[in-house]
Amino acid sequence: MKKFFDYWLPVIFWAGIIFYLSSIHNLNSGMQVFWDVFYRKLAHAAEFGILNLLLWRALYYGENVSFKKALLWSLLLTVLYAASDEFHQYFVPSRQARWQDVAQDSLGAMAVNFVLLLAKYKNIFNLSS
Asked: How many CB atoms sit inside 10 A of residue 59's CB?
């Protein structure tokens, strides 16, 4: 039970935050269009990068999955959740389902995986295979 609270509850909580944000009808920031789009895309990448990191952590430390498999599975699960998030937004008034957002979310997840690979390669966090 401790493993669930330590590793999987943060994943579920963060996925719930993403779901909640996708349910909001209008997330207009009031900024100029360029900055609104820029920060929105950055937020997309960041929120799914965090989800990817939490999934990797749960798999690697919580389930003792190998480093490479945890990277692969966390990326796959994050991309699938990003696709389901866009499907969910299809049904939210004034929101759209766009494959470009799935790509943006995936880039955030891949960036996190790149940092994890770099950390392993440089032996920053003492990550074993």
From this structure: 23
